Amino acid sequence: MGLGGWTMKRIALLGAVALGVGLAQDVVAAELPVYGAAPVYQAPVAVAPTWTGIYLGFNAGWGWPNSDEGRFAFTGIAVLDVRPSAVTFSSPVFGGQFGYNLQTGSWVWGVETDVDGAHMRAEKTVTIPAIFASTWHRVFEC
Question: 97-131 in b/e burial notation, b at 16+ Cβ within 10 A?
Answer without folding.
Answer: eeeeeeeeeeeeeeeeeeeeeeebebebebeeeee
